[in-house]
Amino acid sequence: MMLERLLWLWRDRWGLATPAVPTVALTKPPARPVGQRLARWSVWDLPGVPLLSMLIASLLLLAVIGLELSLAGQAWFAAALLVTAIYLSRHRGFMANVMILVLSFIATARYFVWRFEATIPRGLGVEHWIGWLECVAELFLCLWVALLLLRAAWPLEHPQRAMPSIRQEWPMVDFVLRCGECSLSEVEQGLRSILELDWPAEKTHVFVYDDAERADVRELARRWGCGYLAPTADRGHEDWLIAAASASRGAFLVTLDGHDRCAPGFLRAASAWMLFDMALALTHTPGHAIAPTLHPRLQSRFDSRWQGGGVAMIRRAALLDLESAERRAEGLAERLLDEGLAVACVGRSSRGSAAERLPAEDEAWVRIDHPGGDKAGVFRDGVQGLWRTLGIFIPVAGLIVAAVPVLELLFRLNVIDTSLVALAAYLVSHVVHGYIAVRRLRVSHRDSFWHELRENGAAVHVALASAGLVLRTGLRRLVRAVPDVLRQALRPSGEEGRQACLRTAWIGLNGLAVLAGLWHLWGAAAGWPLVAFFVVWAGFQVFHGLAMFAIDWEQRFRRWSDQRHLHVPAMLTLARGKTMACETTNFPQRNLELTLPDDPRLERGQRVRLALLPDVSESMLNAQVMELDPRARQVRLRIDDQFEQRCVELARQLRRPPPDWPAWLPGPQILWWIPGRVQRTVQRTARRLRSWWAWIARV
Amino acid sequence: MKLVGVISPKGGVGKTTVVANLAGSLTRLAGVGQVSVLDLDPQNGLGWHFGQVLELDQTGVCRASVTGRSPWSARVETQLGVDYLPYGWAAESEREAFEQLLTSDIDWLGRLATERPDTDTEVCVVDTAPGDSAYLRQVLHHADMVVTVLLSDGGSYATMTDLEQYLSDMLVVRPGVPVLQVINQVDRSERLSRDVTAAMTASLEEASAYVVVHRDEAVAEALACQSLVAQHAPHGQPSQDFDRLAAAVWRQLAS
Fold this sequence. Notes:
The complex is a heterodimer.
Chain A: H1 2-13, H2 32-39, H3 49-66, H4 71-88, H5 94-118, H6 126-153, E1 173-178, H7 184-195, E2 204-209, H8 215-224, E3 227-229, H9 239-247, E4 252-257, H10 264-276, E5 280-284, H11 296-299, E6 311-315, H12 316-321, H13 332-338, E7 342-348, E8 365-369, H14 374-391, H15 394-409, H16 420-442, H17 449-480, H18 482-490, H19 495-522, H20 528-566, E9 569-573, E10 579-584, E11 591-595, E12 607-612, E13 619-629, E14 634-639, H21 641-654, H22 676-698
Parallel strand pairs in A: 1-2, 1-4, 2-3, 5-7
Antiparallel strand pairs in A: 4-6, 5-6, 7-8, 9-10, 9-12, 10-11, 11-14, 12-13, 13-14
Helix pairs in contact in A: 1-17, 1-20, 3-5, 4-5, 4-16, 5-16, 6-14, 6-15, 7-8, 15-19, 15-20, 17-20, 18-19, 19-20
Chain B: E1 2-7, H1 15-30, E2 35-40, H2 46-49, H3 61-66, E3 76-77, E4 82-85, H4 92-104, H5 108-114, E5 123-128, H6 134-142, E6 145-151, H7 154-158, H8 160-173, E7 179-186, H9 191-204, E8 209-214, H10 217-224, H11 229-232, H12 237-254
Parallel strand pairs in B: 1-5, 1-6, 2-4, 2-5, 6-7, 7-8
Antiparallel strand pairs in B: 3-4
Helix pairs in contact in B: 1-12, 4-6
């Protein structure tokens, strides 16, 4: 995940597009009919049977975990588990997820049982106690990572996601307005509200579903240039959904009744979440017809005063994947959940709405995933609390684990009393299953093998380059700023300083271990495979620490870059040929906010001319005043459609390479896996060869 | 004392306005009394920006120099903290004599910069008459920095060749003198202004730095009110532009 994060930040730094996410579709659940028959078996209704089966399953699990195997047996067992997990990872569905998690749990549990039983040195010496401490620290870290994963995969509230800055990358959204018993004027107002939404016109199509097949509604749809959908022959309850899914072509389908309104905030928030979370198949407001009932405990997180109406956004591909018999509106959410997809309730936050200065599209929105019962909410709150509590001890556990290679290699203490082959037989299974489970919980799609290999290779390449950057400049600055870091670390609020100190200690310890291990290898000391293993392990820790520094570095750069891009100098052309110098606060948003030095005496709805970057490469835009706050000297403008692209291009131009990026490090071309200097040399040589060839041809 | 010469091959480009507002903005950077302006334009328009009305028969640098007195004796302290050396009222014969003096004594401006009795002036901004003249030659010989002013219109674009000729002549004698170009009254909403500005900036970009001053009615209003743009319309874009120009000049002089 660390490398993935680094790669994402790095792409953002150089303004590169994120590659398309889904590459290979998952196949259907393999044992679906069998599982369904099993789940519907009448024996489950007998008293005590569920409890008994749970008991038997737990005993079986314990038996598998505690099963003593020879080294070869463990290797075969690990291989069988791995093959099963890889097979399951090709299939979607809730049951496949559970089975992958169970396999990962078995591999991890077997690893820890073996570690406690067979790898702690005998006797009551120092090595024995350090070995114990090391095992406990590893277990603690593993538990913490599991909680972290649970918290990330099943958060109580999801953070807001932003839509891509380039509007061409926005998804195609089709709207289905259900007329029902609404009057013609209500339908007309509904259509107007949809067409006035801030969404690219070429990425929207509106359909009117008319249950009563009224002639005036048909005429209205024709006049507004919308598609008209009439009920099919069977006129089933799910008729509108089938008609809409068949007629529409967009990635997402928004359904609402004639008297409901789709808030711009809902459209943006839901689209952004569904665009980046491929597992999310349905988002709906708490009051929508196809939405399952939300528990009051979770409902309290939404602003009850908000009258946004019942709106739902459905991923069309997920809807089409459902078999036609199952594609009914009633219970749609449950069926999607059965498929292993996510369903979320989206609404305006109950917090912060009162403080909103200007009601706008970027207001606070909350996403809560189903199943959203009270117990689930309590459990997730508990996970959150436990994670925070355990987080205090993480640095200690981390340092203990980091100290093992140092003790093994520098002081020749035998902390892990085993052979390298046995360690590999248990550890590899534990790590690989963990990776599969994490991938499975984070993304619902399956990457192709080459895509995954390329992404991971690029991430390592970026990490190496960034680690080099950290080594070259970061540590030098750190050494210069040691007193500041220590001062920060000693203060209770100096979280960054504490982290920096811990990471430096981590890198220092492991760096020492690497040197000691290399020294042992050089001296051809006994047990070189284990020494080599620890050298690699300690090297990985150093790399990990440096990559963490690099991520911090990139995040700091991103904050600086965002700040710089938000505040762009601007010039407002006022009446009677006057101008006013001002500054944007949210560039390059289309609804641009300006901070003015004085009251500009504008009126709402007035058309104005705005120049961005008047001092360098001025760009003139036409806009309309949307909101005014003369007291705060702020104004919100809406940039005209034809100037929006210019605004985006200007924003792209502003993203220059950062000043602290050394020339010897590769820039955006790092994805080619070629160092920047080599790439430049190759390009230069190719140019020369071409010119020579042209000269020869002329001669 | 550093001399900043403001020149243009063409009249009516807003040279005097640039001199006055540049001096005002430089005063905010350098401090009160540290900046002076020297008017070497017989039109005597510079004083109006500082609220100075030329009285009949007022002695300026022209008459002072012709009569053998120090030009600094004509100095006027303005309320804005800028010392003002007016050209002064001059009869035709006096003007001709002064121009002959400037032609024969090429070090006149250099002496003025070194002899500065009773003043703390560190920077002197010199306004010149348009086109080739004895005043322009003095500036090109002695200025530590040259600021050229052009309008973003076709007429100014046509005179760019003359301007390049002046500057190349100057750079032959005094290589390394920094040149800053000001494109005045730019309004990119007008097609001609936008295109001429683009053409000028494209041709100037490699040769020297340039600063754009936007068109704003507040500039003309400021002159009518006998004040600087920064006082009359402090939040207007030209006020920011003149500050940026002053910062660029100050940075260049400091280096």
